[in-house]
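Morning run. Coffee first, then this:
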Amino acid sequence: MNHLSDKQKVTIMIAIMVAMFFSAINQTIIGVAMPRIIASLGGMDYYTWVITIYLLTMAVATILVGKLSDIYGRKPFLLAGIGFFMVGAFLSGFSSTIFQLIIFRGLTGIGGGMIMSTAFTAVGDLYLPRERARWTGLMSGIFGISSVLGPLMGGFIVDHLDWHWVFWIFLPLGIVAFGMIFKLFPSVPKREGEYIDYVGSAFLTITIVSLLLAFSLAGEGAGKYAWSSWQILGLFGLTAVSLAIFIFVESKVQTPVLPLSLFKNDIVTVSNLCGFLLGMGMMGVMIYTPFFIQGVKGISPSGSGYIMMPMSIVMVFATTFAGGYMTKTGKYKGLAISGLGITSMGIFLLSMIDAATPVYVLISYLCIIGIGLGASMPVFSLTVQNAVPLGQLGVASASSQLFRSLGNTMGIGILGAVMSSRMASRMKDAYAQGGEGASVMSQLPPEQAKELGALVNPEMLLDQPKLEKALASMPADLKPVAEGLIASVRDVFSDALTTTFLAGGIIMVIAVLLAVFLRAIPLVSAKPDAGTVDKGKTPAKPVMQNEK
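And here it is:
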């Protein structure tokens, strides 16, 4: 696309960033709204699937579309991605059951994967590396802006409008993005001599899907299976078999969808594993903190958005600092270790909170996490790109995004299993025969016990207006008992969530230990010559960016 003028390139980049913002804001706006959506649709045991299915389909689309866009160009996949995303978001707003929402979010995830996979790669089509860095920074800033605006808007919408508008409000922006990409983004002819690795793509998809399904379905509660059940063991077995076939296929084909030689580079491997663990720990904070704020603290969704906002703002500043630091010093290992360490410390502090914890203390803990996430998130993508020759830059970047998406998805599954298991155990102890809650219920008349039984449900805590209405309708002599039961359920919910944060903190400690083994090589403003450097090896002599 070197024939395009600077003005045309800038206009195309604006169109790409509009498409990215449309995708990013639709992700961040959901988090704060999810507790109220679950309270409306029901299905507390399935709520993690709303997030999991999106990340699962996004991970698969990301890695597959990356290769296809190399062959057919970026434009058709950007347009298809926006189209899938808009249809999925539109249908999500009409969901009447949790299962419909899960299906439609899966469709949205396909679109999100297409957009993210092609947007960053399109920058490389338009600009040389030195110019590309500036635009990559601007595009990364879109995620920071969406992480600030999303929670605020999500909370406002569910407090003042119907929750369905969370999915619909930005659809006009999607139409604008589609029109801009269609009109401005140039089409390119199909690249000759390239073919699609269908077999490898199929077995990679089976590997990813079966693995994520195993972690998402394992646990306790409705729709869950024991870790030792044949369903879960069968999924893990399918993962192992499909992975083995995938590795065999990729070692034989001429143009593999994910070259195995990439992972011979220890920097790539360690960086991707750190990104994977970072994705797991980060989702524990992003997904489960709004549940604590709304369910345990009893704060409205919009108030939850305000509480989460400082963390997002701090994260943006920390990311900017990290980028400047690495550009100035050319070093990254210390930043990686300290960023992950600060993140783990913040998550461990979250594991110590309870219903009596002041809001300002909660915000300070979240800001600590924001500093750590902001400092560490830019590192591992950059280390991967810096450690490979130019010929592997695209696939290396795709692998980094894939591992982080896998971490996000598996993190939701694992941490969701921890929360569900802890909550089921505590509820059983409290309300099974002989438990404190069961003793209280047994002393009441059957009619009153049935009326109070509706309050013994963590989902009730996520809809404060409904809870207040239920309490207001009760007889005066029954209110103290009802309030005591609600406090008991709130204590169970708090304990389950803080146990989940503890598990997330442990995951981050593993990431810190792994980062210690990250090999440090200088960050240089140069790229290796793909024709003279062996695949997967660090170049001995870089070729400067402005050299032909």
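Residues 211 and 236 are 6 Å apart (CA to CA). Good start to the day.
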